[in-house]
Amino acid sequence: MTQEFVHVTYLAHGKPGTDWQKKANGIAVGLTVGSWTDLPEARQAAMQKHLGHVVAAEEIGTDRDGLAQARLTVAYPTINFTPDIPALLTSVFGKLSMDGQIRLVDIDLPTEFASRFPGPKYGIDGIRNALNAYDRPLLMSIFKSVIGYDTATIAEHFYQQALGGVDLVKDDEIFFDETYAPFEKRIEACRLAAERAQQETGKFTLYAANLTGPVTEIFDKARRAVDAGANALLLNVLTYGYDVLHRLAADPQITVPIMAHPALAGAMYPSAQYGVAAPVLLGKLMRIAGADFGLYPSAYGSVALERAETLKIAEALRGEQGTLHRAFPVPSAGIHPGLVPFLYEDLGNDQIINAGGGIHGHPQGSAAGGRAFVAAIDAVVNGKTLTEAASNSPELKTSLDLWGNPSGK
Amino acid sequence: MTQEFVHVTYLAHGKPGTDWQKKANGIAVGLTVGSWTDLPEARQAAMQKHLGHVVAAEEIGTDRDGLAQARLTVAYPTINFTPDIPALLTSVFGKLSMDGQIRLVDIDLPTEFASRFPGPKYGIDGIRNALNAYDRPLLMSIFKSVIGYDTATIAEHFYQQALGGVDLVKDDEIFFDETYAPFEKRIEACRLAAERAQQETGKFTLYAANLTGPVTEIFDKARRAVDAGANALLLNVLTYGYDVLHRLAADPQITVPIMAHPALAGAMYPSAQYGVAAPVLLGKLMRIAGADFGLYPSAYGSVALERAETLKIAEALRGEQGTLHRAFPVPSAGIHPGLVPFLYEDLGNDQIINAGGGIHGHPQGSAAGGRAFVAAIDAVVNGKTLTEAASNSPELKTSLDLWGNPSGK
């Protein structure tokens, strides 16, 4: 068997004069065989296949505190891991994450090892087929403020959103207490609401229901959701662990796409010295674990991420990667119709325009808010300006008047 | 039913002149009912019990970039959550973690809500009973470099460690590939090695085996471990998710204590602006979820945390908290016998002295390395200096000569 390696790149800060080659070698040996030069020769021969090595160790600058900055790339033999993210993250950034100023900035998985992860079960093509929606970005609406609401009220909210022409509606990710709106009842009620809206609009709307509860029951719950007619599931991946997403995606009975929410990601990606870069956290790892949709903060909204980072996340989700399906990037938070041209210029058709307040805050209600977005998307896809489109869409005109049209066109 | 609230404290950075009361109120409303002033009065009456509120919003200083710093404490009604950590963290620091410079620094759980979490199944008292070891810190040794080793070799390493008089031996947390040393075989072999050592030393040694593999199989695997004679389990809690620990601790068939490894914690706690403070991450949440042992970087070793933070972690693990059992604090990384007086002064008897290189690196081998620690612990408990103790323990003398005796006594 040829050896395969996972290449992991770190950004490290340290005292001026740090021997980065030595530092990287300490990582490569310490996180694989533990020690090397102390081993007898016969033992070294047996352990060679488990030994990590340094690919690159390059000083790249100095920070404002005078600390030297370096990029270190270490190769870890895949033979040391089982193909799951707890094994991968614990090995390459478990203890190491606590060892001084060090940040995980990239992971490069070799083809054979990556193919042992499920990846998205449906991905962009599968979801487009399910919705019969091609050659344009999809539109998603987020339920707002449903804590304490009952099933009938939630279904009515769903109906209003679906009437506006959105392709998907997702639960609020903080919807946990299901006393008034039990999971399967909610799924059934929203499916009926989708059918009712379809009779008026001709368009079907998927519902991504928030999958919650004990991890020991979540897989059964997901299967029951499918039996109840669910057509998508939402998961708070980082609070449940990537392996929960992985096993949901790998389960042949769970025949619906899975949407990965980024909740808690901000505890890990924003620091310059520590943590895990957003394209790894919300892009690469989400995709191999099986996210069909990857949500992340857009570069334009209320909760913003740097544009370059958002483009890397999108590339990690939907770029070519072996046999893995492509996942939908879903730039989120504070999106209103005036931002659609920016999102479209960045990512083109293969993305989901995702809005909460930008739909529900529309003065004529959620259905009108949805129609405003539909008109905006139709405009950008057909090379029209929002101002042109607004002349035929009073709903869009209202949105632009309220939230602005920052592209100025 | 009287309302109970989880109090969450954040450290926020923002522009000078930020209205912190308004900011905190936005969090309290936004992460509970979504919006409030827009709601009709009848709806407000129904939603009142779900509404969060601001407990405190206090500006505390200015950072070196001229940003204002504030401590914000928000009360969340427990009625909004299910009693599990994914619900709790997603709600109070899910989306919010991505919303600017904000850090979660404390969580205060009310008694009734905390009592719905399992907490440690055995805790300090249960573990002391199992080991028949009282009135002193316990001693743990970490397997080193076992990737690629077979069961017999691992059992021999265990035997050497047990001979040195350690109370527990834990697997290396990066031990995943079990091809050469299958989980249950390894547990059986180490149990036999423990019995063999006991015949010589009169002392029993617990083995904490690393629980790995798919989350869908991990609960069965843990039960099989118990059937195979396991007497403790090690879990990489942060890469698997706290809920895995929670459900293992709540499972009546898993009749052994669980050791929580802090792998990946450094991706979250070290930044001053972002993330989650170590006493929450490695103390409070680990304990309610059911850790019997909580590992964390000590203030003295190679991978260091500030002393004040380590004391808060220990307090969170073992302080009085309703009916929850007390968990063992395990300050770790780079511990050698010369550091025992510092650890003892900080935490007294109810802790575990945990060493890897400080045991295996002993020039006379791991058994001698263990004996050096036993002598050091015996010294501090009996009010003797290490220098005095070393006069009766050549192994301790060797350790102090090699790694130093920083207390100077």
Short structural description:
2 copies of one chain form a homodimer. Chain A is α/β, with parallel strands linked by helices and 409 residues long. Chain A is 40% helix and 18% strand.
Commentary on this structure:
Chain A is α/β, with parallel strands linked by helices and 409 residues long. Chain A has two domains: 5-114, 2-Layer Sandwich (Alpha-Beta Plaits), CATH 3.30.70; 123-403, TIM Barrel, CATH 3.20.20. Helix content of chain A is 40%, strand content 18%. Chain A is built from 17 helices and 13 strands. In chain A, helix 6 (151-163) runs parallel beside helix 7 (183-201), helix 6 packs parallel to helix 15 (366-381) and helix 11 runs parallel beside helix 12. The first copy, chain A, is globular and about 75 Å long. The mean pLDDT of chain A is 95. Chains A and B meet through helix 3, helix 10 and strand 10 of A and helix 3, helix 10 and strand 10 of B.
CATH-derived architecture of the largest domain in chain A: Alpha-Beta Barrel
Q: For this structure, what is the CATH class of the largest domain in chain A?
A: Alpha Beta
CATH topology of the largest domain in chain A: TIM Barrel
Biggest chain pair contact, residues each? A-B, 74 and 74 residues
Largest sheet of chain A at a glance?
8 strands, parallel
Output the radius of gyration of chain A. Answer: 23 Å
By CATH, the superfamily of the largest domain in chain A comes out as Ribulose bisphosphate carboxylase, large subunit, C-terminal domain
Poorly predicted sequence stretches spanning 5 or more consecutive residues of chain A:
none
Number of H- or I-type helical stretches of chain A: 17
The succession of helices and strands of chain A, N to C, reads EHHEEHEHHEHEHEHEHHEEHEHEHEHHHH
Measured between the Cα atoms of the first and last residue of chain A, the distance is 58 Å
Multimerization status: homodimer
Approximately what portion of the residues of chain A adopt beta-strand conformation?
Answer: 15-25%
Structural class determined from secondary elements of chain A: alpha/beta
- Biggest sheet strand order of chain A reads 12-11-9-8-7-6-5-13
InterPro entries (chains A, B): Diketo-Methiopentyl-P_enolase, RuBisCO, RuBisCO_lsu_C, RuBisCO_lsu_C_sf, RuBisCO_lsu_fd_N, RuBisCO_lsu_N_sf
Pfam families (chains A, B): RuBisCO_large, RuBisCO_large_N
Domain Ribulose bisphosphate carboxylase large subunit C-terminal (chains A, B): 123-403
EC number (chains A, B): 5.3.2.5
